[in-house]
């Protein structure tokens, strides 16, 4: 009986030790791992780190802190960056193809000429971010905050920006062919010479919006709120206007 009790105590001790080992936060150990494809840095503090040109493909970076980090020219293809903190991070020329950045904080981040085709930015904070020249074809910005962002000469063809807040954003000369901007807030936004062919702007807010010399051919603006909207020189071939009337071929301004 005594021997059985001792064996039971030893077994219990082993079980407790195993449980403690399993319960230990593995993410802390992973935070010390060097950058490499597929590494798990979930929730890690990497603020201010210099990872220029690093290969971070498929990394798990959910909730990680990269505030002020240098991620220029990094390969973040297919990486998970949901809820990550990337305020003022430098992501210029980075590869973000199909990356997951839902609800990420990219306030004042630099994504100039970033390659982010198919990336998910839904509900992310991109206020005052720099997206000039970025390749964002098919990217998702649904319900995203892009107030004051600069998105000059960017490729947003087929992108989804439904209910996005683009107040005061500069999208001059950007291509938004077949982009979805349904119920988007474009108040005070600049879309001078932007290509909006076949774009959906239904129920969008276009108050004091600059659409001068923009190409709105075959675009739809059904029920859009248009007050002091500047359409001087805009191409309106077959454009569906906010009252659902359709412009004729060759219509301008």
Describe this structure in words.
It is a single chain. This protein is mostly loops. It has 2 helices and 2 strands, in the order ααββ. It has a two-stranded parallel sheet. The chain is elongated and about 60 Å long.
Q: Topology, pairings included?
A:
Blueprint: H1 2-23, H2 26-30, E1 205-207, E2 225-227
Parallel strand pairs: 1-2
Key descriptive features of the protein:
253 residues, little secondary structure, two-stranded parallel sheet, 11% helix, disordered N terminus
Low-confidence stretches: 1-10, 13-29
Largest sheet, if any?
A: 2 strands, parallel
**Strand content bin:** under 5%
Helix content: 10-25%
The whole-angstrom Rg is 24 Å
Shape: elongated
What order do the SSEs take from the amino end to the carboxyl end, as H and E? HHEE
- How many DSSP-defined strands? 2
Total of DSSP H or I helical runs spanning 4+ residues: 2
Helix/strand structural class: little secondary structure
Distance between the termini: 96 Å
Give the mean pLDDT.
90
As laid out across the biggest beta sheet, the strand order is 1-2
